[in-house]
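hey m, so remember when u said the tokens were messed up on ur end? i reran from scratch. heres the input so u can diff it against urs
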Amino acid sequence: MRPGVRQGPEIWIRGPVTDAPAEPGGWEGGPERPVGRPVTLRRFSWLATHGGAGTTTLAAVYGGHDCGRAWPGPGEPESVLLVARTQAAGLDAVVRALEVFRRGEAPAGLDLDAVVLVADAPGRLPRRLAQRVKPIESVIDVYRVPWVEAWRLGDLGGAPPRESEPLARLTGAGTARTGTVGAAATP
């Protein structure tokens, strides 16, 4: 153990914590922050784990590239968001797709960022299905998108639904299009 380093849960989240003061001109012992560099939003490829998962709608609402069920190709964003509906077959499909990444069988260079679960019906997810989501959440970030009746009718305008604000922040949706995230959309 090095002197001046506290041990405990902090190390699991942020790395070692020292009692030393921050270095002048830097931030908490790190290099100086870049000044004047524009912040660019990360682009994503929406990858459907099964037919009808909703990648076309998600790409239209949140931005990014709709891959459908094909792997992203050259020149397409390498950051992948796996998409599935919340019905039993959709959850099975997302588990199979996660296994492909776990075994290293996905094309080289792809970065699996998260799973996006799109509601297959209005209302709460039945308990049996909710229990099947928990193991997925234990291995990767899971974002949920509620049922949006307007999307079903083809109206993809407006801000993303309030319930999907974490996904909107991840993708930069809402801020680029409307200035706010999660404004007055009704699922």
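this time it looks ok to me. The helical segments are 10-14, 55-62, 88-102, 127-137, 149-152, 165-171. if urs says something different then somethings off w ur setup not the seq
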